[in-house]
Protein 1
Amino acid sequence: MEKIKLIDEKGKRIDGRGAKDLRPIKIKVHPLNRADGSCYIEWGTNKIIASVYGPKEAQPKHLQDPLRAIVRCNYDMASFSVDERKRPGPDRRSSEISKVIGEALENAVLTNLFPRTMIEVNIEVLEADAGTRCTGLTAAGIALADAGIPMRDIPAACAGGKVDGKIVVDLRKEEDQAGDADLPIAILPRTKEILLMQMDGDLSEKEFYELLDLLADACINISEMQKKALLDRYKQEEDVEEDKETKGKKTENKEIKKEEE
Amino acid sequence: MVKIKEIVVPGQLLDEGEIKPGQGAYRDRADGKIYASRLGVPLKRRDFINVIPLTGCYLPKPDELVIGIIVDVAPSYWIVDVNAPYPAVLHVNDVPWKVEFGETSKYLSIADVVLIKISRVSETEQIQVSMRDRNLRKFVGGQVIEIQPTKVPRVIGKKQSMIELVKRYLNVWIFIGKNGRIWLNGEGKSTRLAIKAIRQIEKEAHTEGLTDRIKEWLEMNKSENM
């Protein structure tokens, strides 16, 4: 079988992106009413819902920390999220991702404010197309802010890697599978502290640092989108309200007409 | 156009220099500047800068009046859910009745709704509540709704202006607990309208000139419904 060409002569990738370009990102804040905070994100064809509950009393009790809150994360992929049906329920991969995302978020949250409690983060992958742990973490950061949980900064995450010998940001499925390396990172955008970093494949030291710089810039871009989405939620309500006001005026007008009749 | 207040997100720079971080803000030791830690509206007050949060859970403070629900009964105390991350303890010494040991369930049983005062919050966030004060009682009749605890001050309004407005227009008994639970009692139709009004206030809490708009809204709906 002939190997697919992932980067053409002009340096364009299979979906026409350049090396530093991200896939289109769409964020909706607070799609769920029952959870304390939630976020729906579409990142390329990744579709993920993150929800946050708490802080609440830590269960099971032996996990309680008398000095700080614990963050428990549960990453789960829907059975229909991948090409071939995934057996539902936790597995090795999702347990690992839950652990690393939970630990990354724990370092962003000001946990000392809520001793003995638990903050529960659920990340549900509805559709997966590479980079779901970064997408999930980005969504979880927004959901935490939406739940009103005190944080040092909103964490942002992005993956990158080496494809056809070139360093690129935000891999899609084909690039992830046929590429040479994959490096997901999560940072606090303000201080550029690294919360999560995993690497799969080989990179030289020079390539690694080059990619790290590109990813930091990408995360800062993502952070701007996160902030915009959070602020937009309160602006949108304004628009809805304006509509209502105009409607109200219409009904008033009708009443006046009735009176005239 | 309705004016909205400026909103900050976690990690946003608030101030640098001498001012102290209040609630919803923190000073980064690395650069000495003050950043927001929550999503909310920044507010400078004397030598503090605070972020009044838009969302978040209720954290009890002493002397606040809250509406609690009894969730467990023990021989000499009750466990009360006050909508906080921690359960609260109501001891038999803190109720207005003389309760014999083991007869706690004769006075308050599970799912009873009570108006209580936070009497003590310890360092480790252990909460003690009391019913020994004027007007503290068990609620009989009416209904309880929950709103975002962070929006309670807005629903009450400056010098209770907002809630007095709703009460005056609709003739409903309303009591607002600091923990975001609201008890209402009144005629069915007007109670429903009052709940609608409260939800409206909750939704638009971050906007300015809200009292006037709610007044208009009540005016409009009252004429339609009654």
Protein 2
Amino acid sequence: MPTIKMTSHLYRFFPHLKNRTLSTPPGSVAEVLSAINDQAPGFTDYILDEQGALRRHVKVCINDTIVIDRKGLSDLVQDGDTVFIFQALSGG
Amino acid sequence: MDDQQLLRYSRHIMLPELDLDGQEALLNAKVLIVGVGGLGSPVAMYLAASGVGSLWLADHDEVDLSNLQRQIAHTTDRVGQPKVESAAQALQALNPETRIIPVPEKLEGERLQELVENVDLVVDATDNFGVRYAINAACVRAKTPLVSGAAIRLEGQVTVFDAREETSPCYRCLYDVQEDEQLNCATSGVLAPLVGVIGSMQALEAIKVLAGVGTTLAGRLLLFDATRSEWRELKLPRDPDCPVCGNAR
């Protein structure tokens, strides 16, 4: 099963995901995000826009590679992969 | 270098990776630091201490009491002063040999481009996306290396964009963010040493670029999570459709 991790900031909005190993069935990025939403309702509302694309300040990585297909979310997440979700920071 | 300089920079010079040539490169280097706040303070202090020849400090803000928790170039008795003047005092006390050029203005347009073209490296230590995009575009046009850092709450990010390299991504390849998605330290908070960690990393990368030492972060993005004291490294490819550096421009 893929393992899901995310930036600490996102745990503020979904505190019940914190300090637990989060995993989903393998599939496309869209399917993985949908599976996270099943465990944390509202999750996709936070990171996806009305068209189902990643919001512009959000990034998804499979292992150490940033997902390029932000609209179709078609990249495949396989068993053993780690999906990491983070967002743009501007503070200086 | 004279005897005083050889002594001052001796701990650099004894590093085989840096040596005399590397220190000479730092002494001759010109760097623009945009933002002299939480990140810009440690960046400017380490670059001045390291002997970087000329530092342009750009910031249109004044020192506020709420800055002092983390912006270590400023002091209580300088509250109300322009940040660039306050920082210049700190840097001159640290290393009077470094030439400090305060730029107490909001850099944009031709003025920004002119300064970026005049230096060897730019450090982005600003706190909003609009300025970050402008700095990035100017650096891509001028082919000037850019060391980019950001820190807020308990998270930081740092990378290098080197437009001299054909395959190097730029800031816009990474982020396309609207201003209304912006968070800042005034509303979200920031843990004091976090800006020191990220700012020090920016100074480190700047020195590596200037002196030609080691492997820089170009093409890689480091994320730091202070709650876990955990670093994560991500590959950062160039976006061929990037409107700033890609085929779409």
